[in-house]
Design goal:
- The protein is an all-alpha fold.
- Helix content is 76%, strand content 0%.
- It contains seven helices and no strands.
- α2 runs parallel beside α4 and α5 runs parallel beside α7.
């Protein structure tokens, strides 16, 4: 187990730590949860940089990097549903994201069994960016509401509402990009399931 893989796997306990902080309410708990989320995001950049610099990129590392990213983002969206940070009807959007991630992860596992790594698609990267920003916006809105607004002389309620709307809008865009990128993956690599495709990029 090398350092990049440890950093990659650390995103799973970070998810649980964020959940504990958002459930266990005390002053600045949501602000700390946002800080933990930022650290988790930095590990996503750092593990890849270290692996490239040291020349220790592996199929396992690439698969786990993608998988832990999905666990973190989908886990947080589920957490947000339980905490009321997403509207009730958005559960259908969460289920769409969850379904896409399971399908693509399964496709990657099939490709890995054939010593093939599926190249990251641009649409998938854009989807990830929108997911990350929407998650950050929703945690910030919650932190401002619980950690700061009650103790400041300035009323931040309207500002907090706008950040909530921004988070919902970005989450909606992320969902649309999730469906779009997932459909593109399946159409491009579906033959891997049946052993009829040789179009996957090997790395």
């Amino acid at each position: 187990m090398n350092l990049p893989n440890i950093l990659t796997l650390s995103r799973v306990p970070f998810l649980f730590l964020i959940a504990v902080l958002m459930y266990w309410q005390f002053r600045f708990s949501d602000s700390i949860a946002f800080f933990v989320f930022v650290v988790a995001g930095l590990t996503d950049w750092l593990d890849g940089k270290i692996a490239r610099d040291r020349g220790i990129i592996s199929i396992f590392g690439q698969l786990m990097d993608a998988l832990t990213d999905k666990i973190l983002s989908v886990g947080l969206f589920i957490l947000f549903m339980t905490q009321g940070l997403l509207l009730d009807w958005m559960i259908f959007m969460v289920l769409l994201i969850l379904s896409r991630e399971f399908l693509i992860t399964g496709l990657r596992l099939v490709a890995a069994a054939k010593s093939t790594v599926l190249a990251a698609e641009k649409a998938g990267k854009i989807k990830t960016v929108f997911q990350i920003i929407s998650i950050g916006a929703l945690i910030v809105a919650r932190a401002l509401e619980t950690d700061w607004n009650p103790y400041l002389e300035v009323d931040l309620e309207l500002f907090i509402r706008y950040i909530h709307y921004l988070g919902w809008m970005l989450f909606t865009i992320a969902t649309l990009m999730t469906v779009y990128s997932g459909t593109g993956y399946l159409l491009k690599y579906w033959g891997l399931f049946f052993g009829t495709s040789g179009s996957a990029d090997k790395e």
